[in-house]
Every structure is written in structure tokens, then in C-alpha cells.
Design goal:
The chain is built from 5 helices and 5 strands, in the order H-E-H-E-H-E-E-H-E-H. It is 37% helix and 16% strand.
Length: 130
């Protein structure tokens, strides 16, 4: 799931276990290699256009459930700057790497092709507004 958004030019970055080692610290990579074979079920990406772009993507999804709770068997999508990290100041969010364009997806049991298609709808809107 983390590979697709990275190559379509509508995001600034894609973040998740095993996706971009340069952003992860050595200890995390070492722990990951001892504990699991693949990446995790959560992927995040920065959408161009900041908060507006992020909400375009989120609002355009039809299959993904919009929620702040990431623990479910269905795929969920959230905007951390206004949900899980909404109580932090903008400076605290920036220090934590939580930008206005950040969108977080917790991958559920649906097919990855269906999830990608649902996200593509919103990402196309962001591209159109460039």
C-alpha cells in the first residue's frame, strides 16, 4: 500500500515501517527485523495542498471509513492534525512531523486494489487543483 502514493507526484512523502529507512532510526529498523517480516498495517502520506488537499482526499473516499480510531478490520483514514494530534500546538505538531497535509490510513481486510482505487479518487482532485 505504501508504494503507490509515492510515485504519483501528489504527495510530499510516504511514511511507514519499511518504506523509507532514512526517516527511521536504527533502533526501530533493528527491532523491526527481529519482530516482523513485512511492514505494518498503517501508512501515512503528506498530500500537496496542506489541510485542504488532505481533506479533499479524505472526503473523496467511499470505501474507507473516516475516523480517528485506527484499530478496525476495515480500512480507516484520518487527518492527524485535526484528530489524534489536534490538541497540540502547530509548533508541537511540526516537531512531531504532523503536517497539515498528513493523511493516515490503517489498512484493513479489503483488497489493496480497492483501497488504492478509493484513495486515487481524492488524489486526482488534489492533482486537478495544482
Amino acid at each position: 500500500m505504501g508504494q503507490r502514493p509515492q510515485d504519483d507526484g501528489q504527495q510530499h512523502g510516504v511514511f511507514g515501517p519499511g518504506l523509507n529507512a532514512s526517516r527511521q532510526e536504527g533502533g526501530e529498523q533493528q527491532g523491526k527485523s527481529r519482530q516482523q517480516q513485512g511492514g505494518g498495517g498503517i501508512v501515512a502520506f503528506d498530500v500537496r495542498g496542506g489541510r485542504t488537499g488532505a481533506w479533499q482526499v479524505i472526503d473523496a473516499t467511499r470505501m474507507l471509513s473516516i475516523t480517528a480510531n485506527l484499530g478496525d478490520v476495515k480500512t480507516t483514514i484520518t487527518h492527524p492534525a485535526t484528530t489524534t494530534h489536534g490538541r497540540l500546538t502547530p509548533q508541537e505538531r511540526a516537531a512531531a512531523g504532523i503536517g497539515e497535509g498528513l493523511v493516515r490510513v490503517a489498512v484493513g481486510l479489503e483488497s489493496s486494489a480497492d483501497i488504492r482505487a478509493d484513495l486515487a479518487r481524492g488524489l486526482a482532485l488534489v492533482e486537478k487543483d495544482k
